[in-house]
Design a protein that fits this description.
Length: 441
């Protein structure tokens, strides 16, 4: 619980669950992966239900808010309420554990405050408060999504589909790996992994993707991961390279490349021949890209730390293929990254769509005649997807929209049927949007 509360504090600062756990384990010198896996599951499940947990705490705070408390105390409270309300942990033992942890870090009065508050949360009849809420607020609390997003989904998908999607988002996500076919074929890897008690099956749509059914240990501890025989990558993300289909000796530009999932996959498709210019503005993520490429023995990636909005570094329009995997709201990845649910809002979506637009315009300038520009996000919103493409086609008549194949998802909305969307509740993947734009001769 102590480790988990430190991790929750890091998540509040903007780190993902995985990175926050890595940071905390390093800081507290925790190498035991079994303990780390347990803590990871605990923080993910708590963060998944954060709106309900905070709502029930706020009711007992009577007028003040959990946001006014010290981050560490806030985290302890959230974990305790998760145990209380969702794991039905016996309260006396739970309260003692919380008091013990807080007493070590703060004055005794804070431990007493937390215990009193938890008793109040336990006693409170939440049904009375719940019945006073609007239908949208109720759905948001029942399915653990922000109210604005429930309203957005109802409007764009209809009530039935929206509820199916949100139910999927609160279940554990499927796990996929992408086989590095430069080192091993999928059948052989599947057999070898089973000897490490990692059971994975061939995906029916993509020849180099396996779905992991069971794993006796975290995948990154597999010897085959360490040797670069596979990369942990969602099926929807792997689909992107299949659609772009880069060939040997192609000249490829990836404008938002880090941490390198798609860039390394492209290197694999190109059999390490040709060139991939990989741009990204994040130094930390770029380090991951370099490490990822090295592990997978991809040698044709040239990383360049740069803001892709401001630089027109190649004067001629000469790339055969350009990938823009744009920074986005990640509204398609709430299942695997639940903390994003609580940081995204409509203002952020508007701001991101402006960045996406600038990046797309810049990307377009780099495509050679007859070359391909692939625009991708892991967002579900039309503002970041179809609306960007509509505007682009209007202002860039030298580009046309082409069908995205392999086609394993559903058609884009607003009549853009050549674009492809993937949804967690339909395709068992992250939510993705893919548009293929071809420059006319
Ligand atoms: C969706 S992620 C890319 C994932 C990557 N393509 C992969 O498959 O591993 C978006 C990336 O865009 C980068 N980014 C955001 N704004 C940028 C900008 N203005 N210029 C370059 N990169 C940017 C972020 O650092 C982030 O790594």
């Amino acid at each position: 619980m102590n480790l988990a509360s430190h991790a929750l504090v890091e998540i509040e600062k903007g780190l993902s669950a995985r990175l926050s756990l890595k940071t905390i384990s390093f800081r507290h010198n925790i190498a035991d992966w079994k303990l780390r896996s347990k803590v990871h599951a605990l923080i993910l499940e708590t963060v998944r239900r954060l709106n309900y947990i905070d709502w029930s705490i706020n009711i007992s705070l009577k007028g003040s808010s959990i946001s006014q408390l010290h981050p560490y105390i806030r985290s302890i409270l959230r974990l305790a309420v998760y145990h209380l309300k969702f794991l039905y942990t016996r309260s006396s033992h739970l309260f003692d554990v919380c008091a013990g942890i807080i007493a070590k870090k703060f004055e005794k009065k804070y431990a007493s405050f937390v215990i009193a508050l938890l008793r109040e949360v336990e006693r409170e009849n939440l049904e009375i408060h719940f019945n006073r809420l609007s239908e949208l607020e109720k759905t948001g609390l029942q399915l653990f999504h922000p109210t604005w997003f429930v309203r957005y989904l109802f409007r764009h998908l209809g009530r039935f589909e929206a509820i199916r999607l949100m139910k999927t988002n609160i279940s554990p996500p499927p796990q996929y790996i992408r086989v590095n076919t430069l080192k091993i074929d999928p059948d052989t890897l599947q057999r070898r992994l089973s000897k490490e008690k990692i059971i994975a099956y061939q995906d029916p749509d993509l020849f180099d993707v396996l779905q992991v059914q069971k794993a006796a240990k975290p995948l990154i501890h597999s010897s085959y991961y360490k040797k670069g025989y596979f990369y942990i990558q969602n099926k929807a993300s792997a689909l992107v390279t299949h659609v772009l289909n880069p060939q040997e000796d192609d000249f490829v530009l990836d404008l938002c490349a880090a941490p390198g999932g798609k860039a390394s996959h492209m290197g694999q498709f190109m059999k390490n021949r040709g060139s991939i210019i990989a741009l990204d503005s994040s130094r930390k993520r770029m380090r991951e890209l370099i490490e990822t490429s090295r592990r997978q023995s991809i040698k044709i990636i040239q990383p360049l730390l740069i803001d892709s909005r401001s630089v027109s570094f190649v004067p001629k329009k000469q790339f055969d293929k350009v990938l823009l995997d744009a920074p986005c709201s990640s509204t398609g990845a709430f299942q695997s990254r639940p903390s994003r649910k609580w940081t995204v809002n409509k203002r952020l979506i508007k701001w991101l769509s402006q960045i996406q637009w600038i990046l797309l315009e810049h990307a377009a300038g780099q495509v050679r005649p007859k070359g391909i520009l692939l625009y991708v996000t892991c967002s579900l919103t039309v503002e970041e997807n179809e609306m960007i493409i509509e505007r682009f086609l209007k202002l860039n008549p030298d580009f046309r929209l082409a069908r995205t194949t392999p086609f394993i998802g559903v058609h884009g909305s607003r009549g853009l049927s050549q674009c492809q969307r993937l949804y967690p509740h339909i395709n068992d993947t992250d939510g993705f949007f893919i548009a293929k734009l071809v420059r006319r001769a």
